[in-house]
């Protein structure tokens, strides 16, 4: 088990190292000068352009040798310094992101856990039941093929504008001051519901289908046939199948995290929900590269942490701790 | 690749026919194939059905669908149907190039890692695991943000280069199980080269698996491209389905009730990708007799 953990940790550290390197590398080795690009789009007067060029050249550290730039990038990173946001000028990037992260956790955690749980339960229930298989599983396939933002747009349009039940933009009503009062929390929840629902629905389809396919494989396995031959009740065979099928679904959760995060970013943009996705949109529209790079690092760190937690859960659930060799996708 | 297979022809034909027999009788496969071909057909002949340029202001702003503008017009009076057709073409291009490249890299890495084993496997496996953990969209985002001119083709290539890891992992596991079979040992003893064994002995035995991998990669590439376009990092020239949704949201099509602007692109993506997934299940049933439901 220690070996398993050691390997995983090593991979994660290496990934983090690589991600930081990408984050450092891309602005410097893309065609064109990032400082010039940034300033030419900002359209300023000549003398301020000169001053700004000087400022950003120093900020990027472009006047130093390359290896020194790289080292100072790491040094700044360990001091939690990711630069200063351009679009929210004097605020440091770290602070901007820290304000957005709670919204992301609040949105993603319930959506992921609930859809995973209900999706698996439902998929296991639907497997090999002719009626459910033929009616509801096509719905599952359509849901998992739906682009996250499109479902978000449809929900916003149907429930937000046509029916007028839910607000469709922002994290809370702009008429309220953030505080821990009931009206504010109620407003927070009302704004949270639609983004949550659209994330939940798309993911639910994926988990239900994955589980259904796994259960069918398990029910065709020799041990299931053996149990049936012994005259074990159907529910017992299914329970064994479920416990075996849930393991690849845990690995699947780790594999799907990247897609889920991408979906959450797009969903936040649809609803102008003030998480990292919305920040990224603003960073792109305002050519705020420091903010964009900071968001990139935060996403990577979040995904790595989540992967690590899933690894621990996997060890708790499966004492054999196979390193997931069978490519469990779906 | 297929020319390398040379079993006795009579057996091959019989086997083909068996698969074809089940393929044509499989409803999931039939429905999926029809939907995909329908959209492909529309994308191919589409430009003949419209005589408006995609981004010119050709009609009254915000007009609902009519006989002249089949899918209505945007807030600026652009023809939505023309944009839709061109977006459909871009979508298929991303699917074929991005999905194809993703499959190709995945297959190569998977074969080499699974067949070679040892230190090569360790290194490739580590690379796969690293790329697997990094969310590909985050990388695409940061690359696209720094590119000033972006095209659909470049986008597809980037998507292909970031989407291969799960395919590599799955194919590696399959290769692993085939590697120690008798016929592979026999080929090795008879002095066949590694490449020849991989493509002549191992690959034909997992052709169905490779094909299904491509289908999933195809769908995944389309969804990734749509997300990237929607965030505003899509192609700078031309149009795409994700870009249409982005524009619709940006110019408040929701508040104006212009459903004809944002519904068609989503329907197309969902239908194509969903049909691909359903085809995949159908193929699984065709190739794996255990799953066939009679």
Describe the overall structure.
With 330 residues, chain A is mainly α. Chain A has twelve helices and no strands. Chain A is globular and about 85 Å long. Chain A starts with a helix and ends in a 13-residue tail after the last helix. Chain B has 294 residues and is mostly helical. Chain B has a single domain, classed as MetI-like (MetI-like fold). Chain B has 13 helices and no strands. In chain B, α2 crosses α3 and α3 packs parallel to α7. The two termini of chain B are 33 Å apart. The N terminus of chain B is likely disordered. Chains A and B meet through α1, α6, α7, α8 and α10 of A and α4, α5, α7, α10 and α11 of B.
List the helices and strands and how they pair.
The complex is a heterodimer of chains A (330) and B (294).
Chain A: H1 2-29, H2 34-42, H3 46-60, H4 66-78, H5 93-126, H6 130-145, H7 148-162, H8 182-219, H9 222-230, H10 234-270, H11 276-285, H12 289-317
Helix pairs in contact in A: 1-12, 2-3, 5-8, 5-10, 5-12, 6-8, 7-8, 7-10, 8-10, 10-11, 10-12, 11-12
Chain B: H1 9-25, H2 27-49, H3 80-116, H4 118-133, H5 136-146, H6 152-162, H7 165-179, H8 182-189, H9 194-202, H10 207-233, H11 241-250, H12 253-256, H13 259-287
Helix pairs in contact in B: 1-13, 2-3, 2-13, 3-4, 3-6, 3-7, 3-10, 3-11, 3-13, 4-7, 5-6, 5-10, 8-9, 10-11, 10-13, 11-13
The N- and C-terminal alpha carbons of chain B lie at a distance of: 33 Å
The gyration radius over C-alpha positions of chain A equals 24 Å
Strand-residue fraction of chain B? under 5%
Biggest sheet architecture of chain B: none
What's the helix-strand series of chain B? HHHHHHHHHHHHH
| Element pattern of chain A in H and E | HHHHHHHHHHHH
Mean pLDDT rating of chain B: 83
Structural class assignment of chain B: mainly alpha
- Would you tell me which CATH topology of chain B applies? MetI-like fold
Q: Largest interface, by Cβ-Cβ below 8 angstroms: which chains and how many residues each?
A: A-B, 67 and 61 residues
User: CATH class of chain B, please?
Assistant: Mainly Alpha
Overall pLDDT confidence of chain A: 82
Q: Any idea what the shape of chain A is?
A: globular
